[in-house]
Design a protein that fits this description.
Distance between the termini of chain A: 18 Å
CATH class of one domain in chain A: Alpha Beta
Shape of chain B: flat
Strand order of the largest sheet of chain A: 1-3-2-4-6-5-10-11-9-7-8
Radius of gyration of chain B: 23 Å
CATH superfamily of one domain in chain A: Amidase signature (AS) domain
Helix content of chain B: 25-40%
Oligomer: heterodimer
Order of helices and strands of chain B: HHHEE
Number of helices of chain B: 3
Largest sheet of chain A: 11 strands, mixed
Order of helices and strands of chain A: HHEHEHEHEHEEHEHEHHHHEHHEEH
């Protein structure tokens, strides 16, 4: 098995024993990346940086100073600012932008010795569920069951494709409404969105600041624990970052969930849900029950209002955050006609630089925040959000330790198949994940089975705030019971 | 609530995104569809509910108001589409 397909845990152990060098491990990934262009995952390759970092990691390993992530080759979502390396949020409006600074997450990863292989494709400004809104073109799912090319999901579609296709050991993602968990489910990998405030947002291009959270996308639950450990922690540069100690997540993986109470929310049993998803959910519950957990029926009554509330709040925050792209300080500026003033510059720059979905969301956000509508839409959505959060608080107060739900309403769909659909049909992809962002809770997607076509399906576990360790342990039990080992057949 | 063409034009203007006249009817239709979807929120009784402002009740940290960097003019201007003599350059702002 070539080294690019290893887990972080296996690579860490082999590096420490000297069975492989970080340089050789990195070379294996760089080779896989060059052979994997058909996946559209890596949009800016950084082999020189990777090899420099790998050599430095080898020196640290030789010196015996090697944190868990030392020498581990990673892909970084294009949403993260990386010094001197294009960081465009997959948007033409940030064309040519090379930050003069490094995001907190990548700084922490590099301090821990991790290796950056390059930047990964995504939906433009993380707005999308299929990676089809990217200025770089589509990322493609390594899973394929017929002639069609499938979406890897979105917005972290490049991250998911890169990890599932073994182009890297793991990748960073970000999740505003499901953008880590949905692509993880579509590609048969693990993705965790931590509690809001667990990971610093500094240096990550902002979409909806009260919902955005970065997290790892990995091949196993153990890798998610190791990777999250290195990303998490208080950052004075992000005022919403929590000043709480970060526990040892890997040590939390005891595999023992006896006596734990798992809630199945009845409102997640949607009309028209495919029988396969329903069965997967029941199978997952049975696996946790066999491991000694108690399964209880719970109610989260405001679930059906989560998507409409999200599609008020997220565009409102986006319209404000994206106001900074005006063609003055960075990125694209439209060519102006004789006599054009500053307003024409703004309007032409933003019309050229933003794609259709981003324009649509900025305008929706502008509308719901405009005079006369603020209370009717934005404030009402924030009140509904408070009720959604309270639903979860009541469930946890009643003794529930974790909540089990499907991760997505279907398996991966074909690229282009939703292009004529109403935008709302695409938004429905987030139906099971978006509540978690609204409530600020940690949620993880775990691959559990294949559908009848042979495509991966995932289940989501939702945990108590700041209890990622306990959540990861539940996910670990589910992962072991499900025994999901299928890999996509290589066609690229 | 449906959005007419005048409202679509006004929203585009407020968002500082140029939309051609010919594209306004389609935009108005799309925005109306999304707003209709949001109307479901009117079914919820929100009497006495405080709008959610933060995910976890915690006091925002305060820091000392002091200068911590400086002398990085060239770094700040490095990505500008048009920078001249140490400034960001833009088209005429006032007549």
């Amino acid at each position: 098995m070539s080294a690019n397909s290893w887990t972080i845990a296996a690579a860490r152990d082999a590096l420490r024993k000297g069975e492989i060098s970080a340089t050789d491990l990195t070379m294996a990934c760089l080779t896989a990346i060059d052979a994997g262009d058909a996946l559209g995952a890596f949009v800016h390759k950084t082999p020189e940086i990777a090899l420099d970092q790998a050599r430095a990691a080898d020196a640290r390993l030789r010196a015996g100073d090697a944190p868990s992530m030392c020498g581990i080759p990673l892909g970084i979502k294009d949403l993260f600012a990386t010094r001197g390396v294009p960081s465009q949020a997959a948007s033409n409006i940030l064309g040519g932008f090379k930050p003069e600074y490094e995001s907190t997450v990548t700084t922490k990863l590099f301090d821990a010795g991790a290796v950056m292989l390059g930047k990964l494709n995504m939906d433009e400004f993380a707005m999308g569920s299929s990676n089809e809104t990217s200025c770089y073109g589509n990322a493609v799912n390594p899973w394929k069951v017929d002639g069609r090319k499938l979406t890897p999901g979105g917005s972290s579609g490049g991250s998911a494709a890169a990890v599932a296709g073994d182009l890297c050991l793991a990748a960073t993602g970000t999740d505003t409404g499901g953008s880590i968990r949905q692509p993880a489910a579509f590609t048969g990998i693990v993705g965790i969105k931590p509690t809001y405030g667990r990971v610093s947002r500094w240096g990550i291009v902002a979409f909806a600041s009260s919902l955005d959270q970065a997290g790892p996308m990995t091949k196993t639950v153990r890798d998610a624990a190791i990777f999250l450990q290195a990303m998490a922690g208080h950052d004075p540069k992000d005022s919403t970052s929590a000043d709480l100690p970060v526990p040892d997540f890997e040590a939390a993986l005891t595999g023992d969930i006896r006596g734990k109470k798992i809630g199945l929310p009845r409102e997640y049993r949607m009309d028209g849900m495919p029988a396969e998803i329903d069965k997967l959910w029941a199978d997952g519950a049975a696996m946790l029950k066999d491991a000694g957990a108690e399964i209880v029926d719970i109610s989260l009554p405001h679930t059906k209002y989560a998507l409409p509330a999200y599609y008020v709040i997220a565009p409102a925050e986006a319209s404000s955050n994206l106001a900074r792209y005006d063609g003055v300080r960075y990125g694209h500026r439209a060519k102006l006609a004789q006599g054009d003033g500053i307003t024409e510059m703004y309007e032409k720059t933003r019309a050229e630089g933003f794609g259709k979905e981003v324009q649509r969301r900025v305008m929706i956000g502008t509308y719901v925040l405009s005079a006369g509508f603020y209370d009717a839409y934005y404030n009402r959505a924030r009140k509904v959000r408070a009720l959604i959060k309270r639903d979860f608080e009541l469930a946890f107060a009643a003794g529930v330790d974790a909540i089990l739900t499907p991760a997505t309403p279907s398996a991966a769909f074909g690229l282009g198949e939703m292009s004529s659909a109403d935008p709302i049909e695409m938004y429905l992809n987030d139906v099971f994940t978006v509540t978690v962002n609204l409530a600020g809770l940690p949620g993880i997607s775990v691959p559990v089975g294949l559908d009848k076509q042979g495509l991966p399906l995932g289940l989501q576990l939702i945990g108590r705030p700041w209890e990622e360790g306990d959540l990861l342990n539940h996910a670990y039990v589910l992962e072991r019971a499900a025994g999901f080992v299928a890999k996509p057949a290589k066609w690229w | 609530m449906s959005i007419d063409i005048d409202t679509a034009r006004r929203v585009a203007k407020l968002a500082r995104i140029r939309v051609e006249e010919a594209d306004l009817p389609a935009l108005a239709g799309e925005l109306s569809g999304i707003l209709t979807f949001m109307e479901q929120l009117n079914e919820v009784d929100v009497t006495g509910v405080e709008p959610m402002t933060s995910v976890t009740p915690m006091r925002l940290k305060r820091r000392k108001d002091e200068v911590t960097d400086g002398n990085i003019q060239s770094q700040i201007l490095k990505n500008a589409p048009d920078a001249r003599e140490g400034f960001f350059a833009v088209p005429k702002v006032v007549e």
